[in-house]
Each structure stands twice: as C-alpha cells, then as structure tokens.
Design a protein that fits this description.
CATH class: Alpha Beta
Shape: globular
Strand content: 5-15%
Structural class: alpha/beta
Bound molecules: 3-methylbut-3-enyl trihydrogen diphosphate, magnesium ion
Largest sheet: 6 strands, parallel
CATH topology: Undecaprenyl pyrophosphate synthetase
Oligomer: single chain
Strand order of the largest sheet: 3-4-2-1-5-6
Number of helices: 7
Helix content: 40-55%
Distance between the termini: 35 Å
Length: 248
C-alpha cells in the first residue's frame, strides 16, 4: 500500500487475525512537542487530544476492540499548578464537547484511577460519560486519570481485606482472578500491546499488574505526532513478535 492511502481501512500488510485485542498507550511528549513549536507545553496537551481522538477512530476502523490511554498519573500532581489546572479543564471540556459524538459512534467510555480526588466538575462529566455509554456495543475506551498502578493495587488489597473482615471473602479463595476483580480495570482483558511515545523506556506506574505479558513498543515520535502511519508501524512491529508466555 502506498503512503498516499488514507489508512482508513486496515493496511493490507497487517494480518487481521493477529491484531491486538487491547492496546494501551502512554501518551508522552506533549510538553516537548509544544516547546519544539516555540509554544507553551500546554499547547502540546491540546494537540494531543486530537491525536487520541484519531487513534480511537483508527482502532475502531481497523477492528481493535479496546483502547486504554494514560491521561494523568498520580505523580502528575507534582507539576506546576497552572499545568495541572489546564489539564483538568481540558479533560472536562473535551468530555462535554465530544460525548454526544462518541455515544453516537457506540464508544463505551470508562475511567480508571482515584477519581474522587478530581475536580467535582470533571467528576460530574465522567459519571455522565460512563452512564450514557455503558450499554454501547462499540470500542471500549478507557482513560486512566489520576491513575497510579501502586495506588490501584493498594486499594484492591484494602477492598479484599474489607471483604475478609465482613465475611464476604474467604482468604483461601483469594487468587489472581479475584484480585483482578478488585482492580479498576476489572472486566477488561489485559492489554496485548503497550505503546509509549517520545522514547522513554519506562512504565511510569501504569498498569503494572495488567501489563504482565504485554508486548512493549517505544517510539521516539512525540505523542502529538503519533498518527495512523505511526500506529501502523507499531502494529507491524507487534505482528513480528513471538509471544511465548513463558513457554518454549
Ligand atoms: C504527556 O506529555 C501528557 C501528560 C503527562 C499529561 P508530557 O506533558 O509528559 O510531555 P513531556 O514528556 O514533558 O514532553
Ligand atoms: C506518564 O508520563 C504519564 C502520562 C502519560 C499521563 P510522564 O511524563 O508523567 O512520565 P515520566 O515522568 O516521564 O516518567
Ligand atoms: Mg512526559
């Protein structure tokens, strides 16, 4: 297929039967992108929203049933207040503007993270987005906001401990499956492919439990530049991998 093709359909050199069922992305490099344009870091965040919207549509067009995006980590509160405020307002505005269209496109929206620490106006939009789209049959779109994997694992432990204390959980029945049911991501299969943009070779407290056997793909492309062509390259790389899951 030529570079001029719009990539609206699955590129012919991708094997439909070997597509990941769930892609997770660490959307990194927004600030660097903004600075490179000679603009503020936050301009990169705004541009990054368009990139995410197109990736969501691309997954839908190409038949990938689940996408999870890391939008804000529990560590990101340590950024300058103006940047944090900008991001919270951005998330709220995007949800308000895009919900009707995503709903019409059958997207099922879910947020994971410690949501009760987010600004109340954003929490309201999240509740509305999840409730409006919960019965939709299209792509599962998960947004990790105020998400930290260690926090998630600790709250799962607390929730299980409560269950043991009130008699609803027998300690003997605690296994990986039950543990997974107490994570924010319960009900969504683990990611097959993790993509991190902007070159950093780290997980940054993202889905530590769920990524146990994910294939990891890191690209130097900054998140705002991660287009369909870049995603196509990531999928081609993924399809070359030999997933062994500990076997031979
Ligand atoms: C990722 O881009 C977006 C968030 C963490 C919210 P960054 O803001 O981390 O961009 P860089 O890594 O500083 O370039
Ligand atoms: C990870 O990016 C978090 C998100 C993309 C939301 P960071 O930019 O916060 O990660 P570090 O600081 O480089 O590890
Ligand atoms: Mg970063």
């Amino acid at each position: 297929m030529s570079k001029t093709d719009s990539l609206l359909e699955l590129p012919t050199n991708l094997d439909r039967s070997k597509l990941p069922r769930h892609v997770a992305v660490i959307m990194d490099g927004n600030g660097r992108w903004g600075k490179k344009q000679g603009l503020a870091r936050v301009v990169g965040h705004r541009q990054g929203v368009d990139t995410l919207k197109d990736l969501l549509r691309c997954c839908r067009d190409w038949g990938i049933p689940a996408l999870t995006a890391y939008a804000f980590s529990t560590e990101n509160w340590g950024r300058p207040l103006e940047e944090v405020d900008f991001l919270m307002a951005l998330f709220e505005g995007v949800l308000r503007r895009e919900l009707a269209e995503m709903n019409a496109e059958q997207v099922r929206i879910k947020f994971v993270g410690k949501l009760d620490a987010l600004p109340p106006a954003l929490q309201d939009e999240i509740i509305k987005a999840e409730a409006t789209t919960s019965k939709n049959q299209g792509i599962q779109f998960t947004i990790a906001t105020n998400y930290g994997s260690r926090q998630e694992i600790v709250q799962a432990c607390k929730s299980i401990a409560e269950g043991v204390k009130n008699g609803s959980i027998d300690p003997a029945e605690i296994d990986e499956k039950l543990f997974g049911q107490h994570l924010y991501t319960h009900g969504t299969p683990d990611p097959d492919l993790l993509i991190r943009t902007s070159g950093e070779m780290r997980i940054s407290n993202f889905l530590l439990w769920q990524l146990a056997y994910a294939e990891i793909y890191v690209t130097d492309t900054l998140w705002p530049n991660f287009d369909r062509q870049a995603f196509h390259e990531a999928l081609l790389d993924y399809q070359q991998r030999h997933r062994r899951f500990g076997k031979v």
